[in-house]
Specification:
Elements: E1 9-13, H1 21-31, E2 35-40, H2 42-55, E3 61-63, H3 69-82, E4 88-91, H4 110-135, E5 140-145, H5 159-178, E6 183-190, H6 204-214, H7 223-234, E7 245-248
Parallel strand pairs: 1-2, 1-4, 2-3, 4-5, 5-6, 6-7
Helix pairs in contact: 1-7, 3-4, 4-5
Length: about 260
């Protein structure tokens, strides 16, 4: 029962399709009893997200541009009019120009660096600021998604590695700011996933296979495992966990080199 989400409700941001990590989290939270609202950006994503939201009994869908403060403000205003309080927000939003997710980090451009940091990092701060008034009365949970490219060099991950490092630092600072209001802030760090976002990174298939072959569990993360981790963090079971990066990668992060058979 500690992992029950009955009576809890919150916003999922960043579902792209039924293979998205955000979708795995949404399904797990729904199965644990939570009520969900969804955000998307633009008409193309609306067509994908709407049937998925409906399948979980959600009728709250909002078009949000996280680079536009007015758009975020309007969305949370609408959410607050429907639900005076919320219990969690899942921020599964990141972006970088695909052309810079291959080759050398040295070739990162200033415009893409700024754009990547704005969408992938600053948006979490802006979302937290808007969600805070809806959580400060009863506490709650804010979750984001990161990847080990934040602290180790992953070929082709490039500027996204720097962005994820900043996102993890942001998670810690927000956790400290919001802790007195019983609001927990954590990041989940899955291994490589076969998602729309993951496919944009150069050499994604090789990275996926390498991790699967060498992780202690000889397996990559599943949507179900990531979803279960999110339920733990958002439920009462995670009441004393904040400022953390929880790795869900089959143990790959503990390795210093590939398994003997793959050397």
């Amino acid at each position: 029962m500690m992992h029950s989400m009955k009576g809890k409700r919150g916003l999922i941001m960043g579902v792209a399709n039924d293979r998205s990590i955000a979708w795995g989290i949404a399904k797990a939270l729904h199965e644990a009893g939570a009520e969900l609202a969804f955000s998307y950006q633009g008409e193309a994503f609306a067509k994908r997200v709407e049937p998925l939201a409906e399948s979980l009994g959600s009728d709250i869908l909002m078009d949000v541009d996280v680079t536009d403060d007015a758009s975020i403000e309007a969305a949370f205003g609408r959410l607050g009019a429907r639900w005076p309080t919320i219990d969690f927000v899942v921020h599964a939003i990141a972006f970088s120009d695909k052309s810079e997710l291959s080759g050398r980090f040295l070739n990162t451009t200033r415009p893409n660096f700024k754009h990547s940091m704005d969408i992938s990092v600053y948006s979490f701060i802006e979302v937290a600021r808007r969600a805070y008034p809806l959580m400060k009365e009863n506490g709650g949970t804010m979750l984001t998604l990161t990847y080990q490219g934040s602290n180790r060099v992953v070929p082709n991950y490039n500027v996204m590695g720097v962005a994820k490092a900043a996102l993890e630092a942001t998670t810690r600072y927000l956790a400290n700011d919001l802790g007195p209001d019983k609001i927990r802030v954590n990041a989940i760090s899955p291994g490589p996933m076969k998602t729309l976002a993951g496919a944009a990174i150069g050499g994604a298939r090789k990275t996926f296979r390498h991790t699967e072959d060498n992780a202690p569990m000889r397996a990559n993360a599943t949507l179900e495992a990531i979803g279960g981790t999110a339920v733990y963090l958002a439920s009462d079971a995670g009441a004393c966990t904040t400022g953390e990066v929880i790795r869900v990668d089959g143990g790959y992060h503990v390795l210093g080199m590939p398994q003997p058979e793959n050397l």
